[in-house]
Amino acid sequence: MANYQNDMERMIVESVLAELRKSGAAPAAYGNTTAGSVIEDGVINLPDVDHPTLTNAKNYAAVEAMKQVTTARIGLGRCGTRQRTDTWLRFQADHAAAMDAVFLDVSDDFLKKNNLETITTRATTKDDFLREPNWGTQLSEEGVKKLHEICKQDTQIHEQRFHSTITKVQVQIIISDGLSSRAIEANIPEILPPLVQGLEAAGVTVGTPVFVKNGRVRVMDQVGMELGCDVVLNLIGERPGLGTASSMSAYLIYRPTKDTVEADRTLISNIYAGGTPPVEAGAQLVDLIQDILKYQCTGVKLNEATK
Amino acid sequence: MKLKAKMYNRTFEFHSVAEVLAKANEVKAGDTWQGIAAESQSERVAARLVLSRMTLEDIYENPVIPYEKDEVTRVIYDDLNQYVYNEFKGYTLGELREYILAHTGDEVLRLGRGMTSEAIAGVAKLMSNLDLVAASAKIRQPARCNTTIGLPGRISYRNQPNHTTDDVNGIMASMKEGFTYGSGDAVIGINPVEDNPENTAYLLKTVHEFMEEWKIPTQACVLAHVTTQMKAQELGAPIDVFFQSIAGTQATNDAFGITKDLLENAREACRQGGNSLGPNFMYFETGQGSEVSLEGDEGIDEMTLEARTYGFGRHFQPFMVNNVSGFIGPETIYDGREVVRADIEDLFMGKVHGLPMGIAPCYTNHMRCDQNDQENGTMLCAMAGSFYFMGVPGGDDIMLNYQDTTYHDDASIREILGLRPTPEFEKWMEDMGLMEDGRLTEIAGDPSIFEK
Predict the structure, then answer these.
(1) What is the pLDDT of residues B414-447, one digit of tens each?
(2) CA of A248 to nearest chain B CA: how many angstroms apart?
(3) pLDDT for A226-240, tens place per residue?
(4) Closest Cα of chain B to A162: distance in Å?
(5) Closest residue, chain A, to B292 (C-alpha)
(6) Dihedral sign, Cα of residue B226, residue B352, residue B346, residue B401
(7) Which of A74, A102, A131 sits opposite B334 (nearest CB)?
(8) Chain B interface includes A62 (CB < 8 A)
(9) Is the peptide bond before B330 cis (omega within 30 degrees of 0)?
(10) Is residue B30 domain-resident?
């Protein structure tokens, strides 16, 4: 509970700020000592924690400035020694988003809407996936069968469209939930169309993208070996932090083998609205894949080749 | 040595000390992943029955990884106090459990000098959670760098102001806030994004300037690889204490890029060229499951390997050992129950080794664990006399992407249990007007008190 003195201080600060705000010098919520939730159409939004919520600041402007240079949860204030209600609720909301990203599956609706067929791995449940890290790197028997069926259709489609015969595509794109289904749902609709169209416009043959359920990074090696394609691109959900649950990575491998190691892969990470936006990442990948096809390698070797 | 036990109508047979040690464990994901866990609760208890009848000598004569093969085993055996070992070698682990629970902390510390790490792990496997807390609470061997941690009636914190890009202003902002909650009397410890000597030296110099300007009695550390920190020292960085992650097998220490010789050289570099008083100059981090996740486990269970890590660590007389079992991942520690158990096992095992133990009862977002588990672990470890915890703003480490003890938790634990900061740091807080009679004052929690 704020005491009289704090209320007085707050009134003074807020009246000064109101003046500043009129001249555009202060952000809207500046100096607000409670996080507060904006209520829109009867719906309570998450408490805002971008601004200080401590009630005892000697210098609010200084704390506000500190919050501009870090996303750490500072300037929270306290009740006794504990966190205030709104920052504690916001923490729980952010952890809930992270856990749901890990433990919930990509929805069937989403897969249907984006025309993604599901290929399964040895990890049939999330618990198996988390407990047995190798299982998510191995396709199930059924998964292998389905992958070949889709690939066969791709070669038939190619013949119909281009009247030329191919036995395999150059690039196969797989989408793996990894540690964040949220990352897939947030980024795939934006990254996939420009990526596939960009590659095809550059004359690269691309297989129909497939969704690998409970997949890890290294599952791309088996996909590459099964299909014999030149490049496999694995778009995979990253382990969520409290800051964002929707960050995605793009791993690339050129003709993987059983001896493929991590240094052989090329990686673009941090793909999400607040990092590298998905549309931008899609354009980068189109260029990168053309380089990979030209130099016939990925990873450390590609870095050296393009120096 | 008997390796068979009957549980009502079923007889269980085991084949080695290592198998008994693994199967005696509480459920841990890492053991299940390795395929070495007990297959039923009855088998688990049968393994404990067998273990309780093994003598200290049985364990000594059957190291889980041979002396010739593994540097960690050699350090453990070479450092053992033979006089104490001979005095107790006829005791069974069941008898040693009772000895530990019935004797004083100093008597347990003396016993610990004659126990191999596997034996210390073995006794811990026979203990319930409250056994572990009761035994840990009385064991105290303080350690000193600039200031002393682990004194009776005191609890300390590492101020952990990490930043996503090592932005020094962002780091300082979090650090300032932490100080006002009383976090930072164990160490100011920054995990850098960029592991290079220049960055390490720059961060250390900046933090030290702040400590000197505000006369803050503590120590600082940048948790880069030890070789990076040694290079930073050559660039003129003030070194109070060297940090390094260590593990319970040579194979895993190889993966960490460390050997016994390297760590001895580091300690010597701090003793001869460092900034601090000493005599304890090393800061280690450890965690159950690090070996199996780096494929260096040699088929041994993660709890026993954690004890071996402490056996290796005690050779270097560290200033602090910090356990981060909850950081490794769900394939080694799956949920809240497992992590809380691991935290108090580790605290006990470390303390019997005579180490200045702190715990990070932390969790990652792909574990089935939440802040309530984390807080339960913190409260139990505080009761068990953990020397320190971490302090992370709002519990959210934005750089390492995991959750740990908050600045708020640090202050709460002190006030709940009536514990104080290190004496020098308490005086500093009083001089700053941040603490009175061991409690935070009105101005605490405001990082802008350092603005002039």
Answers:
(1) 999 999 999 999 999 999 999 999 999 999 999 9
(2) 15
(3) 999 999 999 999 999
(4) 46
(5) A133
(6) negative
(7) A131
(8) yes
(9) no
(10) no
